[in-house]
Amino acid sequence: MNTAEILLRFMDRVQQLVETINGYIERGFEFFREAKEWVQKIIAYIESAIDALVESMGGRPSTVNLMQDDYMFV
Hints:
This protein is mainly α. It has a domain of 31 residues. The chain has one helix and no strands. The radius of gyration is 30 Å and the shape is rod-shaped.
């Protein structure tokens, strides 16, 4: 009977340890979810600032069609 009690106490402590580790992992996941949201907001802000800067400088240049007759070599 003494061995069974020792094993039960050991298993209870192992279960408590696993639950504690699981709690820390869940907190870590939540932290990274919030960090991801902040990074996405920062990236969106930087993209809008770059677009505004480009528009204030005259916009993006149009792409040149390299398949025009002047550029074709046979």
